[in-house]
Every structure is written in C-alpha cells, then in structure tokens.
Design goal:
Blueprint: H1 3-18, H2 23-36, E1 40-45, E2 49-56, E3 59-66, H3 74-88, H4 94-106, H5 113-130, H6 137-154, H7 160-179, H8 184-192, H9 198-209, H10 213-244, H11 258-275, H12 283-301, H13 306-328, H14 333-340, H15 346-357, H16 361-388
Antiparallel strand pairs: 1-2, 2-3
Helix pairs in contact: 1-2, 1-4, 2-3, 3-4, 5-6, 5-8, 5-11, 6-7, 6-8, 7-8, 7-10, 9-10, 9-16, 10-15, 11-12, 12-13, 12-14, 13-14, 13-16, 15-16
C-alpha cells in the first residue's frame, strides 16, 4: 500500500469533516477515492472523528483522524472537491495532492475579521424584519449583530455561543427604550441566527435517515447543547438588561411588509455568503437558489401547514442544488448550505428550550413538536429531491 495515498485519504477525510461535510458524504468520497487508487478500505465518519481501515492480503492498517473544529468554509470545500477529482483521475499524484491539501488548509480565510464583523451586523439587520420586526428594527438588529460579531471574534471558541446570546439579548433590551417602539424578540433572534444550531440539527437528522447512527446522535447531541447554551445566554442577558433599564414603556413595532423582506433578500444572501466563505463566482447561483427556496416556502405557507411548507422548501432547495452540482460539476453544498438558513428549523429548537427554561412547559412542548415535524419535513424534502434529480457527485 502506498503510504502517500493512505496519508492523502486520511487527511482528506479530516479536512472534509472540518469544513462542514456530512458523514455519509465523507464516507462516499473516501470510498470512491480509495477504489480509484486501487486500495481497499472501510470508513466511518462522525463530527469529531474519522476512522479509516485499509487492508490487502499482506497488511492491515487502521487510522484515526481527530477533527478539532467544524467550521463551514465553502471555498475550501470547493477547492478540496477539485483536488479530490484530480487525484482520483490520476492527474495528480497522492504525494502532490497531500502538499496541495496542506496549502488549502493553511491558507488564510477568504474574508478578514473586519468584513466578518460587518457581515454579522448586516445579517442580523436583514434577519430582524424576517422574524417579524419592523424596518426600523433593522437598526436595532444591526447593533445586536455587531455585538455578536465581536464576541465571535474575540471570545474563546467554547464560550462564543452563551456569550453571544448574552450580548445579543442585553444590547436589544438596553437599546429598545431609546426607540420607544421595537420588537426585542425579533432583534435578538436576528442577532443570534448564525449561532442557532439549525445546520447541526438538519445534518444530524439526515445522518440518521442515511443510517449513520453514531454521527447522527452525536450531531443531535451537539445541537441540543448549543441550543441550551444559547438559551441560557439569552435569558441571562435579558435579565441583566431589564435590571439596568425599564422596558415597560416599549411598545411592539408593526411587522415589516412582505415586499421589504424580498427587498432585503439579496443583502441577506451576500452577508451569509461572506460568513460561509462561499466562492465569489458562485454568489449568483446562491442568490438564485435562495430566492427559489424562500419563494417556495412563502408561497406554499399560504396554502399548507408550516411543516409541509418546509418540505416544499427543502424539496426546492434539494432539486436546485443537485441540478447545480450536475451542471457545474461542483459540490451541491456550495449553494445548499446558504439556502438552508432560510428554512432554519433550529430557531424553533432555541424557542422551545427557552420556553422550558422560562417555565412555560406547554409552549415548549408545542414548539418542540413543531421543531421535530419541521426538521423531518426538511430532510425528507431533500431526500425526495435526491430521487427526482440524483446527485452526480459524492460531495
């Protein structure tokens, strides 16, 4: 067995897990690559570990690759997909591929911290009206998102979620009396939308559906812990804010009209693309897919129950991303992950746990049932989409 080939396959699995690929996709990629390189292997991926076993008649080797971070980086994911295809087609040797993979992983982020800060603030600003806030509440959301952006940049990784929730709620409560009319809940949700574990929840359920039980249970557990930490931070921040200022005179603002939500959509896609490190040349496709997904969700919600509307949204997103992958020969995740944010069932998980911690058990149970149905509907929509338009690429 070629040691360079084994090293490349091992490092590739670790890289894919680090940049947001689901377990079943990682295992498919590693299996295809090992077959193309003439190796026999068995692979198992989880969010924190990739297990690899290689064997031939004379030798057996087992490797464990630890995954220390799970950060979505669609540009690196695209570059890794291109590299995987080059090595699988033997246009590049495993040794050269390993050097190129190191270059990809060690390269500086596509966008710097200053642009990230602006993207956090603008994402919160445009998300606030989408959660029922008014157009004027977008300014409050901007301030909240800026605070969360600072926390994400300066706070230790294991403290970013609870601190982000605390800062978001505190800023929203303290600034609301200055406006007189505001939707504090919408501004808070807009500020923490990037922290809500919607992707983790959706990936966990999709892994369970594809019988990756260990990965699915692990990811769902991570989503639960994240939602608990976020809820604690928000509740603590709101308590701290109300201890400093009186919000009894703050009146609820009027929700923004539908046309305003659509007008803000392009800006939302741009800021999400920055935070997800999406390739610049693919922003137009991300915009088109996100608009189709959001439009199908809004239209179907007029005639169907929310869970079925989410199914239609997931179906639209899955079909369009698979068509994109087949046509452009790129990973479907490039346009699928930003589009998922417009379906974000993780928001319901946050609301459910927040209700539990507030003592509102009846509301928590109702919201949790909506969460479960919405998340399953989303995953099943994407599964059905795979049957309608089968993905040509393993990634």
């Amino acid at each position: 067995m070629d040691s360079h080939a084994l090293d490349f396959i091992s490092k590739l699995g670790q890289a894919l897990a680090s940049y947001g690929a689901p377990a079943q996709r990682i295992e498919d990629v590693l299996q295809l690559l090992s077959d193309d390189l003439g190796l026999k292997g068995v692979f198992s991926a989880t969010p924190s570990t990739v297990l690899l076993e290689f064997h031939d008649p004379n030798r057996r080797e087992v490797r464990i690759e630890r995954v220390h971070s799970n950060a979505i980086d669609l540009t690196r994911l695209d570059q890794i997909d291109t590299l995987f295809n080059q090595v699988a087609a033997k246009h590049l040797s495993p040794e050269a591929g390993l050097k190129r993979l190191d270059e990809i992983m060690l390269a500086p982020p596509r966008f710097g911290p200053k642009l990230d800060f602006v993207a956090y603030a603008l994402t919160a600003a445009v998300a606030t009206p989408m959660f029922g806030g008014s157009i004027s509440d977008a300014g409050l959301g901007f301030a909240v998102g800026g605070g969360v952006g600072l926390v994400s940049h300066f706070a230790p990784r294991n403290q970013r979620v609870p601190l982000g929730g605390f800062v978001a709620a505190t800023i929203a409560v303290i600034l609301a009396p200055l406006l007189g009319t505001a939707n504090i809940d919408a501004a808070t949700l807009g500020g923490i939308i990037i922290l809500v574990p919607g992707f983790t929840l959706t990936l966990g359920i999709s892994e369970l559906v594809t019988h990756n039980m260990t990965a699915g249970v692990s990811r769902l557990g991570a989503a639960l812990v994240t939602a608990l930490s976020l809820s604690f931070g928000v509740l603590f921040g709101r308590a701290a804010g109300t201890a400093l200022v009186d919000i009894s005179n703050v009146t609820l603002s009027t929700p923004a009209p539908t046309w305003a939500t659509w007008a803000l959509l392009p800006l939302a896609v741009a800021t999400i693309s920055i935070l997800f490190r999406a390739p610049l040349r693919q922003w137009g496709w991300i915009m088109l897919t996100s608009a189709l997904t959001f439009g199908s969700l809004q239209l179907s919600a007029q005639f169907m129950r929310p869970a079925f509307a989410v199914f239609i949204g997931g179906l639209t997103l899955g079909v369009s991303s698979n068509i994109y992958a087949r046509w452009k020969d790129r990973p479907a995740a490039i346009i699928r992950m930003p589009g998922l944010l417009f379906l974000v069932p993780g928001t319901l998980s946050f609301l459910s746990i927040q209700a539990v911690m507030s003592g509102e058990s009846a509301q928590a149970a109702a919201t949790l049932s909506q969460l479960t149905l919405a998340a399953i509907s989303l995953v099943m929509g994407m599964v059905v989409a795979g049957s309608i338009v089968p993905p040509r690429k393993a990634l």
